[in-house]
What we know:
This protein has a single domain (16-417), classed as CATH 1.10.630.10. Helices cover 49% and strands 11% of the residues. It has 15 helices and ten strands.
Amino acid sequence: MSNTKKIPKEKGIDHSLSLMREGYMYILNRRRSFNSEIFGTRLLGKKAICLGGKEAAEVFYDTEKFKRKDAAPNRAVQTLFGKNGVQALDGQTHKHRKEMFMSIMSQEGIEKLTDITKKQWEITVDKWEQMDKVILYEETKEIMCRIACQWAGIPVDEIEIKNLANDLGAMFESAGSVGPNHWLGRNARNGVEKWIGELIERVREGTVNPPESTALHRFSWHRELEGNLLDTETAAVEVINILRPIVAIAIFINFIVLAVHHYPAEREKLKSGDEKYAQMFVQEVRRFYPFFPFVMALVKKNFTWKGYKFEEGTLTLLDIYGTNHDPEIWDNPDVFNPYRFAKWEGTPFGFIPQGGGDYFLGHRCAGEWVTIEVMKVSLNFLVNRMDYEVPNQDLSYSMVSMPSIPHSKLVIKDVKRRI
């Protein structure tokens, strides 16, 4: 007798519209209704399996069982990821490319990043003091863009920062869109890729000389396993894979301010300057608020997990948001509570706001350390280095739009430097 179990399946021809209507909650809603960490469905005309939870994440990031090549839909490649980027690689090719990214994530590199971030926030406080009101999301995209360019060695005129921030933002803001918004993101990527590609060519010609520790320098001169330089287009995609995620930290910064506003007792705790509590707070913001809804892969070869059969080539989605709100992992997951990280020892599969698994061997985001450090510096400035008011506005955020930000883009006013 076979021990194979039948995967619970959603009835119907295709559920792509349901995913768009329910957004971050699509997988979690069905996991709850099926009372299962796994279910089958059809998305974009294809058979698909959806997974959630710690054990599911562990099997999903097993590179012997799943591959990333050709998993992402083409519209996401054209906007969010770019062609031939590290996210779509597997095996030794992926490992070698990932080492290129990790080479700039040294302690020295992260310290340089935090120094740049502090200096940009100092400049920002002076600027905001002169403004009647600050639209936080738009302003923080520009701050993050300056930080990203300086850290990555990208020479860009201040007059171009706003446009570049908007273009990099359009890449992740349009990833789940159709129609005009999709084309906006696609055109933004094409323009930035062309510009970065020209910079890379100038680095190779010797007319642009970024510091050797920067992404622009290292990615321009990176050689693939065969010994050849990365082609210009792919190198440009990978440089953008440094810039774009740093600009996306603007989303988390909006949620930092939202959390401090909604939970005023947190501000008092953060004013103590306790670095451990600041770390806990940042981690809880990353867990609690919506960022990535899910990640995709294809089954690499037939295998059985917990009695369920996975067939080669099947599209599989891992529930990022739902795993970070899984009651099997987190006590009272829908309550904002930084103290849950007080004794947290770290896990590569239970806490996955930016993917799971190993940084070097797996597909966990290489920039996660960058995100945490930039958030901690930003948090300190927003709580301890300035005062401001949050006027009445629509501070709700969508659980459908991806990515999600407060509807008002979070307006603050009367910014004053704290002496």
